[in-house]
């Protein structure tokens, strides 16, 4: 089954809900960046959360960037998503190896450490919106939950998971976001809290063969779920030689002149997809013109 996400409402629009299966895009990321299992889990969770949050953007050109900076060995991650289901990202240290945590699971929190999470929304205004919160556990889902509550004042529950095969490929990946609207009743809130307490995990639900729609049904129970939209999601990088060309031009004539004087071909590597773009001395000279 290809990766996709669903958007839904429940309890007469008192709850806004998102759920996604993202195994293919997380596996593609793993292959591109050759990430270790714990980094695959960390970055895979952030990619999944970001692609769902990206679908909340209103404008076609709007972009969401989430940065995690921590004092753990992973150091940090950066992910960018749009409103069309496209997402990309990278980890500062993709090869981190850590022993399992006390629960016998990949120690994502230990890899990330203490630090902060920044959410940057570029919506075509003069200045982008930037919200920043302290990391709560480094496990990503808890940190996004805290961000929604403190920066956007939206009571939310975020669940994210990545399950690895024994050969370190991705077996399952996905997540959900549930958000309470301001007019949610106490009865609806109690029902949702009760359902969440009974829900095992995202990866357990997906590994049992459940779809995103069925996962939402498990989470929302009898709260009258109505799926409003289904969207394909994918790992996609929009880099190109033309975009890199413009980036080099933007650094200014002095720096370009220094590159030319070195007499060597310049190679630029894209952080998100690892594509390499080369520019000859002749091409650099044309940039000066």
UniProtKB/TrEMBL annotation:
Q: Which UniProt keywords apply?
A: Chaperone, Cytoplasm, Disulfide bond, Redox-active center, Zinc
A GO MF annotation of the entry reads: unfolded protein binding
The chain's disulfide connectivity reads 237-239, 270-273
Protein modification: Under oxidizing conditions two disulfide bonds are formed involving the reactive cysteines. Under reducing conditions zinc is bound to the reactive cysteines and the protein is inactive.
Entry's InterPro entries? Heat_shock_Hsp33, Heat_shock_Hsp33_C, Heat_shock_Hsp33_N
**CDD domains of this UniProt entry?**
Hsp33
Any matching Pfam family: HSP33
Question: What does the entry give for GO biological process?
Answer: protein refolding
A GO CC term attached to the entry: cytoplasm
Top-level division of the source organism's lineage: Bacteria
Q: Where in the cell is it found?
A: Cytoplasm
Report the family membership.
Belongs to the HSP33 family.
Annotated function = Redox regulated molecular chaperone. Protects both thermally unfolding and oxidatively damaged proteins from irreversible aggregation. Plays an important role in the bacterial defense system toward oxidative stress.
Name-wise, this protein is 33 kDa chaperonin
Native organism: Kineothrix alysoides
């Amino acid at each position: 089954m290809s990766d996709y996400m669903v958007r839904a409402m429940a309890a007469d629009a008192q709850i806004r809900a998102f759920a996604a299966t993202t195994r293919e895009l997380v596996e593609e990321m793993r292959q591109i960046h050759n990430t270790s299992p714990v980094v695959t889990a960390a970055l895979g969770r952030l990619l999944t959360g970001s692609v769902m949050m990206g679908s909340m953007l209103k404008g076609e050109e709007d972009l969401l960037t989430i940065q995690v900076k921590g004092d753990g060995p992973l150091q940090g991650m950066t992910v960018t998503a749009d409103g069309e289901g496209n997402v990309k990202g990278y980890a500062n240290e993709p090869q981190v190896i850590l022993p399992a945590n006390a629960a016998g699971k990949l120690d994502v929190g230990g890899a990330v450490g203490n630090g902060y999470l920044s959410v940057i929304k570029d919506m075509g205004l003069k200045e982008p919106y930037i919200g920043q919160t302290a990391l709560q556990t480094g496990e990503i889902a808890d940190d996004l939950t805290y961000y929604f509550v403190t920066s956007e004042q939206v009571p939310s529950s975020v669940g994210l998971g990545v399950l690895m095969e024994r050969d370190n490929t991705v077996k399952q990946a996905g997540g959900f976001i549930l958000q309470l609207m301001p007019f949610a009743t106490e009865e609806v809130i109690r029902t949702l809290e009760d359902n969440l307490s009974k829900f095992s995990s995202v990866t357990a639900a997906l590994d049992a063969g459940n779809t995103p729609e069925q996962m939402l049904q498990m989470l929302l129970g009898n709260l009258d779920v109505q799926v409003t939209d289904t969207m394909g999601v994918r790992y996609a990088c929009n880099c190109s030689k033309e975009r890199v060309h413009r980036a080099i031009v933007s650094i200014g004539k002095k720096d370009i002149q220094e590159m030319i004087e070195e007499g060597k071909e310049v190679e630029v590597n894209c952080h998100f997809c690892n594509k390499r773009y080369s520019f000859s001395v002749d091409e650099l000279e044309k940039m000066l013109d």
